[in-house]
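We modelled the chain as a single entity of 380 amino acids. Its sequence is:
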Amino acid sequence: MGDSKQVVYWIRRLSEIAMLGWLGMMLLIDLAVAVSVGTFQWLAPISGVCGIVAVLLRRRHRLSGFVFMLVLSFAVSLLMGIIGLGGAPGSAETGALLVLLIGVLRHVEPIRLAAGLACAALIVLMSEASGRDYNDSGLAFSFLLFAGWSMAAGAGGYLRFQQERRTEAVHSVRRAERLELARELHDLVAHHITGIVVQAQAARTVAQTKPEAVAPALDAIATAGSEALTSMRRMVTVLRTEDEAGRKPGVTLADLRMLTDRFSADGPKVAFEIGQGIDDRTLAPEVMTTLHRVLLEALTNVRKHAPRTAWVEADLRRHDRVVVLRVRNFGSSSDPRVSRLGGGFGLVGMGERVEALGGRLYAGPSREGAWEVIAEFPLT
């Protein structure tokens, strides 16, 4: 898995170098044309240099760099058109504008602003063709520039569409899990309130015969009420941030082992170990809920994206005031498509939920070459 990430990284670096190389070659062409034509044609390579700088800085100054290039290019075209000395559109300048246009259509919010800037880019490019009408070739330049704008706008629009699809898919997962969490909150409240009611009834029963037993019962009621409020606050926080959940209160560590046993029955064998110092009273119900969901999601991803996995190692251990769940699969790498997405949609939701409970989630390759999911929770 680490090798595939390295490959993607170097592909991106090489594509960036290739793009800058093409812009550099276009700048050399602009310099040759400026030497041949002279006069104000020297403004074209100057604009090209500015465009290359804007491309280099596009991730930090995407919008301001694009607007600057639009204004600069339009001003140069207007100056050449007014003076009437002729000239040719700058190829590096045009190439930089098209590269920046793809990024604007993909990233700039809101989409209305991105569409407006794309239309402004078309106007600027057409002004290049009309204002720099070298040897009456404005019509040919107009056709070429419009074709370049169409391809850049199409590429940027397609990338924006794919990004919007992924964003909507993530939101859909969160909405579905939020409804599940609402049902879990109902079960959690019922679980705690039932215990409080039972203890209150018991205290009332023994009040007349054993008054000394009432005080401990009241202490137990107060403790149960405090735990209920703490758990409900955590889950309401998750609901407000549209985080995810999924298991009913009352499920124990035995259910985690049962989950791994069911997975082993019709899939790769799972070695699941629970460390010392962890029992059903150690973890809060909402933490148990998330542990169950993270384990389920990790095993499901193994079955989906690494079907040739030889075996899976899972362990739940306590380190001081932290509980850590780790799931690792060996013998088969995960699907590289999941790696490029940064994890499946289920892991996206699990990461948000773990963080809502004050923990951390990591999903990625280990030093040994295995794929691992690690969920860390603080003990309260």
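As a brief sanity check on the tokenised model: The chain has eleven helices and five strands. The chain has a mean pLDDT of 77.
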